[in-house]
Amino acid sequence: MTETLEDSTARHAHMIEAAIAAVSSRKSWSPFRDSPSAKFHAPGAPEAGKAAFHAQLGRPFNLEQPAIVGRSGAEISPFTRQPLGIDYPVSDPSALIDAAQAAMASWRHVDPEARIALCIEMANRLYARNFEMAHSVMHVAGQSYTQAFSGSGPNALDRGIEALAYAAKAMRDVLPAVRWERTFGKEDVSLDKCFRLVPRGIGLVICCASFPTWNAYPAMFASLATGNPVIVKPHPIAILPMAIVVQTCRNVLADYGCDPNLVTLAVDTLEAPIAQRFIDDPAVQIIDFTGSPRYGGYLERTVTGKLLYTETAGINSVVLEGCDDLAATATAIARATCLFSAQMCTSPQNIYVPADGIETADGHRSFDEVAVALVAAVDAIADNPSVAAGIMGAVQAEPSCQIVRNLAERAAQNPDARILRAPTSYPHPDHPQARTMTPLIVALPAGNAALYAEEHFGPVMFIIAATDRNAAVEEATRLAREHGAISSYLYSNDDAFIDNAITAYEGSGMNLSINLHGAMWANFAAAYSDYHVTGLNPAGNACLADLAFVASRFRIVQNRRPTSRKADAHAA
Amino acid sequence: MTETLEDSTARHAHMIEAAIAAVSSRKSWSPFRDSPSAKFHAPGAPEAGKAAFHAQLGRPFNLEQPAIVGRSGAEISPFTRQPLGIDYPVSDPSALIDAAQAAMASWRHVDPEARIALCIEMANRLYARNFEMAHSVMHVAGQSYTQAFSGSGPNALDRGIEALAYAAKAMRDVLPAVRWERTFGKEDVSLDKCFRLVPRGIGLVICCASFPTWNAYPAMFASLATGNPVIVKPHPIAILPMAIVVQTCRNVLADYGCDPNLVTLAVDTLEAPIAQRFIDDPAVQIIDFTGSPRYGGYLERTVTGKLLYTETAGINSVVLEGCDDLAATATAIARATCLFSAQMCTSPQNIYVPADGIETADGHRSFDEVAVALVAAVDAIADNPSVAAGIMGAVQAEPSCQIVRNLAERAAQNPDARILRAPTSYPHPDHPQARTMTPLIVALPAGNAALYAEEHFGPVMFIIAATDRNAAVEEATRLAREHGAISSYLYSNDDAFIDNAITAYEGSGMNLSINLHGAMWANFAAAYSDYHVTGLNPAGNACLADLAFVASRFRIVQNRRPTSRKADAHAA
């Protein structure tokens, strides 16, 4: 320990203030660089990170934890299709809970600003390991290198620091102590009141397989900052990134004389899941869940008396009823669908186009012309392996490919549907064994809900011929109410139509991006600025991040007593 | 409608700013007078209020509501034991829900500051009816006139305005619109983003019988301010105060051109309770419950996917291990227990005194001497009918008396227990038929959990001989963890002991008042300053009021689009 908690708090104060300023202004800000370009990083950093990842392969992951009863780990790289050969400690769940509770006993008394500073220190150290993290995320999740670097690195860390900003705001809203004075009858009463922030209990962070860090950081930091220990439960096919996170956090805690058991890893297997064991434990008071709508929905229907924050998935849609430049718009849509092979919570799946076509700056375009443009835009990505590799990465798990192949079969048997593009694989330039799949594209009229009225977790784009643009918005918003939606997209040149649509999307609790194309990905969600998930439809109940995400993670306990003469003299 | 919404917003702006300043400083503040003394009120106001109450007796309550299918009402005054003879409209629940949803459609688009202003207007008009309210609360709940005036009037309205202050803080935390700019590669991207506050859905406010307005105002105002309609479900034996509230709120809404169905009354009977019908309805998204631990606990164990805020009850304790002036301390404890015949959520029940006595400024006092002082302090209230009437009021319901009589029988049969004071009635000077009961006082050693380890809703004080002061704190805090506690009291002259005790009480999520006596009631909870209920033990899950009480009652929906050239020119 080379720095005291107090010094750490002072050193990181500027960053939490800057983060608070960012969430308050919603302007673009980040303390990190989200490009892996060598010019932004120390010489040798990319190579060192890659080497650290490779050095880990085939070895036990070094993580000291309480009550290790075994080791587990069966990750397989979607790029090499080879096992990573890493195993992780499996701790007895009761022992993890006991250790977390024991750690909370002192953590709750640590100055909230110091807790925040330690979370920032964790973020900084994770950023310092980000090249290693990028390779780790690549080889468990299938994200491309650049996406793994940015989306699972700085963009995710920013979400974590954003949550810290809200935690700071919510906790600072409670004064630590005040003097209160009032006259009752003829008596002047003076009381000294103390208000203490008290954590609720253990926070369980359940991570998804495809994007483990993005939701984990805000959940972990929000709970830790407010005094709660966290137990991280990674998806059994994507443990390594979260093991790195837990290791890093534990090192930070130990370095500052805090109990490392404030952050522990709960490893399980697909065959013997462990999450429910923790959820049912009375000591677990906060559950942050990212994952399938099936389990997330189950939790939403069954968890009582605890805080539950969920992000699951939904049917993201595009309504394309007009644009200036069809090719640019088609490219924006194609890129959003292709990014990480549509394995993102923001990937659009259902593209609504009026059956009688759309207006563009270059004149009318028929439905089929729009469809052709979309296919061409996807082809432009899919047919260029190095572009495809950078955008699509790999498909994490075989079931996603099977889902898409099954859809292709069902579409082939559906007389209404036309397969415009088959889900081929592309040859990855660096990893010939990579599990890749380019999007299936199906054109079909609205009304074929059996095909498109659910989220298919894999690369598929439905181009849906809507009766008209109003019907398109009606169906897109109705499906979001029923099945959820996280990101929605609208292309139109008609301001009055847009205004009406905004009301309709708002009515289904849908965040809407309008007419986005160009260098920024349409499905890019900016920390500190874009609120992610509304909590108003089945895609999740929590928002990254707002006051509601943090304000209930701690409680307030007060004491009060008459102002003493001694205190009076001291104050005077 | 003589004033526009905009003018109302401007006129009330100073009050919400003052309320925000108050919750931020936690200093004493109120826009209202909490004394019924004629000198603070307009000439004739007390008489007019009393006359309004009497004019209502024996008549149908005039409340226009949707889909009235019948009338109901069987309130009986605890003071006169006569039926009030008032009936209230019973509306079809589905129609109330439909009407609330229809009303929400426009209310959600009303400027949040205007919604807050209308809630302040409601509070002001309720304050203007406060003499009528005082008589109404008296004759359904049994509160004394002065307590009904203050505790159910200004003190409750203050809690409501306090919730408005937090609603304002939470909503103002979300900017309505920003311009966001960032460079991606070589492209400067500029987006205009709009962030809209969206209500969650209908708020159901379930009121308790003994103190209906105190929790109702914060719940109603928190939901209304954040855009949600409310359905008020009063306890069937205490409808009138909430009918007055609903009537007043509806009048305000109508006066400002808003849909009065934003606030409706759902009347039921003891035989056919209706709350669950609303709780189970998908349109009801927020439930504020005040009442029995039995039903509150049931809701906490069963409600999923909705916001649930509860305040139930607990075992409030005093640990008396030392004091300067025993008589003054005994008086403070006696007054807290006697206030409203111990029918308050803050009433102390279990008084722990070390078996070997306590130290005072006047020397050692044995356990029995302490007990004698406590009995004498209760007698000083109970033996003076006009004092008793002002403090104790009446017992609302016969079961409370029966609980205390049963306890007296059980204590008489318990060889460890000594009945120091029988639960007699006192003659009420104004209402000879009043249901009154002075406290049963039982002295007994610790360990008789069967007698005192639950909340007895009626006037009873257990003076418990603890092995020592540490054992006293241990048991008081343990019972709070198991059964809840809302207000706890400690008397000690030993600062080190107090410091340790504070940690122990904090560990059980107990708000603690230390060494309080004198003109301020020890169980007085000041709006804007004292956080009421910690949410950390079974006495409830919500706090009046903090950010967590309001921050989840609304959600954020955003849209974003490229900055248009037109907007650029406009901004320049």
Mind explaining what this structure looks like?
Two copies of one chain form a homodimer. With 572 residues, chain A is an alpha/beta fold. Chain A has two domains: 5-172 and 200-312 and 540-555, Aldehyde Dehydrogenase, Chain A, domain 1; 317-514, Aldehyde Dehydrogenase, Chain A, domain 2, CATH 3.40.309. In chain A, 42% of the residues lie in helices and 18% in strands. The first copy, chain A, has 20 helices and 20 strands. Chain A has helices at 5-25, 45-56, 93-107, 112-128, 130-141, 145-150, 154-172, 212-225, 240-255, 275-279, 293-302, 326-338, 367-382, 385-392, 398-413, 449-452, 469-483, 495-507, 547-550, 565-571, and strands at 68-72, 88-91, 177-184, 187-199, 202-206, 230-233, 263-265, 284-290, 307-311, 317-320, 322-323, 350-354, 358-360, 363-365, 418-421, 440-445, 460-466, 488-491, 512-514, 554-562. In chain A, strands 15-16-17-12-10-18-19 form a seven-stranded mixed sheet, with helices on both faces. In chain A, strands 7-6-5-8-9 form a five-stranded parallel sheet, sandwiched between helices. In chain A, helix 2 crosses helix 5 (130-141). Chain A starts with a helix and ends with a helix. Chains A and B meet through strand 3, strand 4, helix 11, helix 18 and strand 19 of A and strand 3, strand 4, helix 11, helix 18 and strand 18 of B. Strand 19 of chain A pairs parallel with strand 19 (554-562) of chain B.
